[in-house]
Design brief:
The protein is 37% helix and 26% strand. It is of the alpha+beta class and 220 residues long. Strand 6 and strand 7 form a beta hairpin.
């Protein structure tokens, strides 16, 4: 009977897998929990921006440093469960355009791609920051814990020489998974309650059946 309840607990508790991101070759991981030596030599303003960041992942090419992050990557995970589609990407970019930001990125490319068998969004855009044209490559990657928004930003003139390295780093990302019916259902509070009631009902039915079977076997 103990084994039955153990299996039931496993079925009723969602196991969210975490994302794991990797910096491009030659870049330095500056994410929370990265080795302390990775932060050595950062300019005070760089260190402050990293320490105050709420990003899940942050990396930069410190070889190109001049007191500012010339080339960097940042990832944030949003707690939502939606399959990536053309409609999802269109809504996402429309939200960026309507964000009220004075410098709205200029869309260059937007499409659905496959990463390790998982449908992801790939967006390339440009925007001007303090007069300098910067290009960004963004990936929207679904997983069990949500959708990761992974972005690489750099001066537009650097992009062509870095693109292959960026794509290689994206391919190393761990935790990508198609949005499942179970994950989408569990995200809803009402659905979670319904599922728990259903699981509890099944547990009671099975427990009663198990008890009756034991009594019947004992009478024999």
């Amino acid at each position: 009977m103990a084994r039955f309840w153990f299996v039931l607990c496993l079925l009723s508790a969602p196991a969210w897998a975490s994302f794991h991101f990797f910096p491009p070759t030659g870049w330095t991981d500056l994410s929370p929990g990265a080795p302390s030596e990775n932060f050595a030599g950062l300019a005070p303003n760089e260190l402050a921006s990293v320490k105050h960041s709420s990003a899940t992942f942050f990396a930069a090419d410190l070889r190109a440093g001049d007191g500012h992050f010339r080339r960097y990557a940042v990832a944030v995970v949003y707690a939502e469960q939606e399959p990536i589609s053309e409609g999802y990407l269109e809504a996402f970019t429309r939200g960026v355009e309507n964000s009220g930001d004075e410098q709205v990125p200029h869309l260059i490319d937007r499409r659905v791609v496959t990463l390790k068998g998982v449908r992801c969004g790939r967006i390339v855009a440009e925007r001007r920051d303090d007069g300098a044209l910067r290009r960004q490559l963004s990936y929207l990657i679904p997983g069990h814990e949500g959708v990761a928004y992974l972005t690489y930003r750099m001066p537009a003139e650097d992009f062509a020489g870095e693109e292959a390295s960026l794509e290689a780093a994206v391919l190393r990302t761990e935790g990508a998974a198609e949005s499942s019916w179970w994950a989408r259902t569990w995200e809803s509070k009402q659905s979670r309650l319904t599922l728990r009631v259903g699981i509890a009902f099944v547990a009671v039915v099975l427990a009663v059946a198990y008890s009756r079977r034991r009594r019947a076997t004992g009478r024999r």
